[in-house]
Structures are given as structure tokens and as C-alpha cells.
User: Fold NTF2 domain-containing protein from Streptomyces similanensis.
Amino acid sequence: MSADVDNIAKQFADHFYSTFDTASVGLEPLYREASMLTWDGSPSLGSVEIMKVLPAAFKGGVTHQVDAIDAQPASQNAAAILVQVTGSFTNAGTARKFTEAFQLLPDGSSYYIHNHIRRTAEAS
Assistant:
């Protein structure tokens, strides 16, 4: 596997969670109108709808801790990348685990999130 894929995935995850934890509205440029988010089983299509979900997901703030980032090329014909992230987050004093998958597609010299799936573990 290409070190470039791993580096891109790490840079993406660092940027994504840093932005999410400080100002989630700053995530909007990472999505397009064809982007899809499935958040704990609830789908949203397009950047406008996605941005209704993300900032509302953690009222009162959130802090993510990334435990692992796995990445693979997602296509033989394009520079698409599949990224899976596992970790935990703290919101309102409660810590929970999450798994998140992203399909990143090239957009000029950078990438955007075409598909995004997040699953949060049930609180124990």
C-alpha cells in the first residue's frame, strides 16, 4: 500500500476531528451536493443537509480521541481513498466509542468527502 494513502488519511483525520471539535460548521467545505452521510443509521444527502446534522450532533461541545486510522485506495481508476477511523469521544461528560468510514474523492489538488458513515457505540 502506498505511504501517500496513509499520509493523506492521517492528514484528513487530523483536520476533520480538529475542526469538528472546535467549530463543526467549518466541515462544510469538505462535502459536496452529491455527498452522503449516514449518522447512526439516519441518512442525509448533500452538504446543506449534512451540515444540519453535524453541528447539532454534539451540543455543548465534543472532544474526539482517534485510536486507529486505516486506509486503502478505493478505486483502480481514480485516486479515491477509503478511510476507517475508530476511537472515542467525550460529550457532556460521557465517553463513548465510535467507528467512522469515509470515501474521499479527488477534487483538484485536494479531496472531498463523498461518503461518510458513522456508528456510535451504545452507552454502557
Observations:
- The helical segments are 3-23, 47-57.
- The chain has a mean pLDDT of 91.
